[in-house]
Amino acid sequence: MNTPTIETQRLILRKFTESDIEALYSLLKDEEVNTFLPWFPVKSVDEARLFFEERYAAKYIQPQGYAYAICLKKDKNLIGYMNIDMEEHHDFGYGLRKEFWHQGIVTEAGKAVIAQVRKDGLPYITATHDRNNPRSGGVMKNVGMIYQYSYEEQWQPKDLLVTFRMYQLNLDGKSDRVYKKYWDHSSVHFIEANV
Predict the structure, then answer these.
(1) Distance CA 57, CA 54 (A)
(2) Which distant-in-sequence residues (6+ apart) come within 8 Å of 143 by Cβ?
(3) Residue 112's closest CA among 135, 94, 133?
(4) What is the pLDDT of residues 74-110, one digit of tens each?
(5) What is the rounded distance in angstroms from the CA atom of residue 185 to the CA atom of residue 175?
(6) Percent of the chain scored above 90 by pLDDT?
(7) CA 184, CA 179: separation in Å to the nearest integer?
(8) pLDDT tens-place string over residues 59-84
(9) DSSP 8-state class, residue 42
(10) pTM over 0.85
(11) Cα 63 to the chain's mean position, in Å?
């Protein structure tokens, strides 16, 4: 059950392996790709290897984990990543090489991964995006997530004050559930109109 491989029309979603570290490095070192992500771009293959070990290899030994390499079916090349955390927030996250932006790839991968976690019984997922990155919010809407609220956070390790928008998708039919921890932990929180 741990990170089952998923195929879509254009993609293969599978576990990361050691052989992906070079491709992961090229993705993680790109400053534009990493603008709205919490970590700084990596500076070396060794940093990419550490990222792999901490964020992927460690997850794969858990009983349930969803940490995917997004690969093109036509050539098997790694072009991005997608994960859903098993912590309380069940955060849905993703990144994609910029030459593949605006082609619906993250939406295609996201719908497939969400179908898998729904089948596996996950009750809900959440996702947040920087208000200055509305395209990420577009992906969240495209996979069926619903805007809940906005909040400010001093984002680490970049140490930036960011206004986040929080989206949620309830997978178990409890449509009135809202994950409130970000709201409760932020002294500045509000609901925006027309998001």
Answers:
(1) 6
(2) 92, 107, 110, 111, 114, 169
(3) 94
(4) 999 999 999 999 999 999 999 999 999 999 999 999 9
(5) 23
(6) 87
(7) 10
(8) 888 877 899 999 999 999 999 999 99
(9) P
(10) yes
(11) 20
pLDDT at 134 over 70: yes
Report the run of H or E that residue 33 belongs to, with start and end.
Answer: none
Across the beta sheet with 66-72, what order do the strands follow?
Answer: 6-7, 11-14, 66-72, 78-84, 92-96
- Residue 23 CA: distances (Å) to CA of 69, 76, 93: 10, 12, 18
**What would the two tokens of residue 178 be?**
């809202």
Query: At how many degrees (to 10) do helices 21-28 and 45-52 cross?
Result: 110
Beta bridge partners of 92: 84
Cα 132-11-113 angle, rounded to 5 deg: 65
151 forms beta bridges with 164, 189
Two structure tokens written together for 151? 């909040």
> Can you give the C-alpha Rg of the chain in angstroms?
16
| DSSP of 83-128 | EE--STT-BEEEEE-GGGTTSSHHHHHHHHHHHHHHHTT--EEEEE
In contact, 160 and 167? CB cutoff 8 Å = no
Cross-strand bridge partners of residue 163:
152
Q: Rounded to whole angstroms, how far apart are CA atoms 195 and 189?
A: 15
pLDDT of 125 reads: 98
